[in-house]
Amino acid sequence: MLAKICNIIRMYKEPLAYVVFGILTTVVNIAVYYLMSDVMKIHYLLANIIAWICSVLFAFLTNKIWVFESRLWQGKIVLAEMGSFFLARAATGVMDMLLMWMLVDIAAVEEMIAKVAVNVLVIVLNYVASKQWIFRKKI
């Protein structure tokens, strides 16, 4: 039984790591937002921007090191990966906002249903962008 579980974990290591670090990224986002907004009394919008930057940076590092195991650390490569990562996350963030607006305000979909559906799409697109574009294995 334990061998079966280990095989399943080995088979799905990458997506499982993506989920685990995605949850931790959310924790980083909320913790930084709380620190900036409630403790340091920074305006909530600025606090949200800082929290987004910190959480995307955390996601980049954890995705690079543990999820997609990119071993290339030359400055030019890291900057290119980081730029692509931030660009992809910004694009899916804008898409998130637009889809939420379209589903809730135009299509009259219940907010939480729209949020869950859009989040699933965003997570999948972020994973695909990271795997196929940002951290693809260079042969």
Explained architecture:
With 139 residues, the protein is mainly alpha-helical. It has one domain. 84% of the residues lie in helices and 0% in strands. It is built from 5 helices and no strands.
Question: What are the defining features of this structure?
Answer:
mainly alpha, 0% strand, 139 residues, globular
Topology:
Layout: H1 2-11, H2 13-39, H3 44-67, H4 75-106, H5 111-134
| Number of DSSP-assigned strands | 0
Rg: 17 Å
Largest sheet: none
Arithmetic mean of pLDDT: 95
Helix/strand-derived category reads mainly alpha
Query: Which strand-content bin applies to the residues?
Result: under 5%
Alpha carbon gap, first and last residue: 36 Å
What number of domains?
Answer: 1
Helical region count? 5
Poorly predicted segments: none
Shape: globular
What portion of residues is helical? over 70%
Order of helices and strands: HHHHH
Summarize the structure.
By secondary structure, the protein is mainly alpha-helical. Helices cover 84% and strands 0% of the residues.
